[in-house]
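Tutorial handout. Part one gives the primary structure; part two gives the three-dimensional structure as C-alpha cells.
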Amino acid sequence: MHSGTQAYHEARSPADRAICELLAEQIDLALPEAENKIWHAHPVWFLDGNPIVGYSKLKSCVRLLFWSGQSFEAEGLTPEGSFKAAEARYAGVEQVDLEKLKQWLAEAREVQWDYKNLVRRKGQLERLK
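Part two.
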C-alpha cells in the first residue's frame, strides 16, 4: 500500500479508518497489479494509468467510487457524475458487503472506460475492455 494511503487512513476517525482499511485490503487482494497512489487527495488504484477504484471521506460516510461502475452488471452501485462512475457509501464497516465488493472489483478489471485520455479526447470516453 502506498505510504500516502496509509497516512490517509491514519487521519481518519477509528470508524472511518476501519472502512478504509477494509476497502484497501479487498482492493489489493482483487487487483494486486494495480498502482495505488493519492490522486486529488484520495486513495485511488490504477490499471495501466487508468483510474479504476478509489474512496474518499465525505461528511457522513466513506464513498467507494468505481470510475466505470455504471457499466457493471452487478447491482448495488449508484450512478455518480456525468460520465460512467458509480458509487457505494458506507457509514460503518458492517455495511460493507464483501460479496458485492468482490463482484464489483472483478468487473472493474474487465469493464473499463478510458479516463486516462479523457482530456486528449475532449471529454469523449471510449471503452477499453
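Part three, for discussion. Residues 3-110 form a domain with the Aspartate Aminotransferase, domain 1 fold (CATH 3.90.1150.200). DSSP finds three helices and six strands in the chain.
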